[in-house]
């Protein structure tokens, strides 16, 4: 990647002071990079981005009070006031979070356990107008997002949250609006057995009502069967 004639102005947003200090030292060892501000949460990151107008904002995903995604939403809503290029730094990330971050205007997503050279490459790539996700630059963002969303949907359909085949059948019946008595008749089991299954299902999914169960099943894309 090309070195810049004027230093790339960078703001670091992370809630861990030791991490910020170490990252600042790494970046400022580069002749073409300068850290111009540090933030300890999302609120401060948004404020500094507007005031300092850096070239790059390195934004931690999992900060307290105001997360990286929260800050990203704020910045995307006011992109003209602070047109900063944002790279999310994260220890762990789900594909749906990557999709949301890129849709909100992030230019990169870099794992915290990446090699230093990888982070430096991502900064140069983003400054050159490219996107960077994980360990590589992304030239066709639209196609990348399409593939990512497709794989995320396929993964969610395969999630069963520890439910047995019988419990998934019970969930399917509940989503279809069946009462306990009707579920018992349909599967030729006792109502007590249905109640026992429901108790286990509620515990596994962390829900407490039939409505919550139905909403969870639909939102999480559980592999439901058609009950007629």
β-strand percent reads 5-15%
- Look at the structure and give the mean pLDDT: 86
Uncertain runs are none
Annotation, overall tally of beta strands: 7
Helix content: 40-55%
CATH T-level fold name of the largest domain? Rossmann fold
How many domain regions? Answer: 2
Please describe the biggest sheet, giving its number of strands, its sense, and whether it closes into a barrel.
7 strands, mixed
**Radius of gyration in whole Å, from Cα?**
23 Å
The CATH class name of the largest domain reads Alpha Beta
Shape designation: elongated
CATH architecture group name of the largest domain: 3-Layer(aba) Sandwich
Q: What is the N-to-C order of secondary-structure elements (H for helix, E for strand)?
A: EHEHEHEHEHEEHHHHH
Terminal residue distance: 61 Å
Mind telling me the CATH superfamily name of the largest domain? Response regulator
Q: Structural class of the helix and strand makeup? A: alpha/beta
Give the helix tally. Answer: 10
Strand order of the largest sheet: 2-1-3-4-5-6-7
Task: Report on the architecture of this protein.
- With 228 residues, this protein is an alpha/beta fold.
- The chain has two domains: 8-149, Rossmann fold, CATH 3.40.50; 159-219, Winged helix-like DNA-binding domain superfamily/Winged helix DNA-binding domain (Arc Repressor Mutant, subunit A, Orthogonal Bundle).
- Helix content is 51%, strand content 15%.
- The chain has a seven-stranded mixed β-sheet, with helices on both faces.
- Helix 1 links the parallel strand 1 and strand 2 (33-39).
- It is elongated, with a radius of gyration of 23 Å.
- The mean pLDDT is 86.
């Amino acid at each position: 990647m090309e070195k810049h004639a004027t230093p790339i102005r960078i703001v670091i947003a992370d809630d861990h002071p030791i991490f910020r200090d170490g990252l600042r030292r790494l970046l400022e060892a580069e002749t073409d990079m300068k850290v111009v501000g540090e933030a300890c949460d999302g609120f401060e990151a948004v404020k500094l981005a507007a005031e300092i107008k850096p070239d790059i904002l390195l934004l931690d995903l999992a900060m307290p009070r105001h997360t990286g995604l929260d800050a990203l939403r704020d910045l995307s809503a006011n992109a003209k006031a602070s047109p900063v290029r944002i790279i999310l730094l994260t220890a762990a990330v789900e594909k749906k979070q990557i999709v949301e971050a890129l849709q909100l205007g992030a230019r990169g997503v870099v794992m915290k356990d990446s090699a230093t050279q990888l982070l430096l490459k991502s900064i140069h790539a983003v400054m050159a107008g490219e996107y960077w996700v994980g360990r590589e630059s992304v030239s066709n963002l639209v196609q990348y997002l399409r593939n990512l969303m497709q794989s995320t949907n396929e993964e969610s359909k395969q999630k069963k949250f520890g439910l047995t085949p019988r419990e998934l059948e019970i969930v399917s019946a509940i989503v279809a609006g069946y009462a306990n008595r009707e579920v018992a008749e349909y599967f030729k089991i006792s109502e007590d057995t249905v109640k026992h299954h429901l108790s286990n299902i509620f515990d596994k999914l962390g829900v407490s009502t039939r409505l919550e169960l139905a909403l969870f099943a639909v939102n999480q894309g559980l592999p439901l069967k058609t009950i007629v």
